[in-house]
Structures are given as structure tokens and as C-alpha cells.
Amino acid sequence: MARTVLCARLKKELPGLDFQLIPGEVGKRVFDNISKEAWSEWQKKQTMLINEKKLSLMNLEDRKFLEAEMVKYLFEGQEVDIEGYTPPAP
User: Keyword Iron on this protein (predicted)?
Assistant: First the structure.
């Protein structure tokens, strides 16, 4: 049976991630509190951020920036600010 989490981003019980995708404390927090659906949404935003800002995952500063943006998006309900991108109207 799939595990469910009370998703911190989407504010409802949803299927959780199958395993911890990120090492460390932040990774555990994501695993315990973020649904597959919210993670998938974040991954799309992350890809846009990487492309927009020409980030390199080999660069520690870029990884720190992405982690900070991820925490703001997943846990603080903030939207990711991507220059030149307007989210579709609901």
C-alpha cells in the first residue's frame, strides 16, 4: 500500500514519495511532508529556474539557491519567481 502524507504544499492527504530523494534534514522533511504531486510541480519549477538562471548543479552556490527556493515553494507556500514567465490563469 502506498504511504500517504499530509502535504505541506497542497494541504491535503496525498500519496507520498516512495523514498527520500534528497540527503539530509531537508530531504527528510520533504519525504515526511510533501506529496508526489507537489514534488512533481516543484520539479517543473526547478527545471525552469535552472534554465532561466543558467544554474549548474555542480556549483554549490547554485544548489544552495535551488534548495532555498524549494523550501520556500514547498513549505512556505511561495511561488517561484521566474523572469519572463507568467503562470496560466486558473
Answer: yes
pTM of this structure: 0.87
CA distance 60 to 16: 28
pLDDT at 82: 74
Q: Which of 45, 42, 44 is nearest to 34 (CA)?
A: 42
Map out the domains of the chain with their CATH numbers.
4-75 (1.10.3880.10)
Rg (Cα) of the chain, in Å, rounded?
Answer: 13
Output the CA–CA distances (angstroms, integers) from residue 32 to 14, 16, 53, 89, in the order listed: 12, 8, 29, 30
Q: How many residues does the chain have?
A: 90
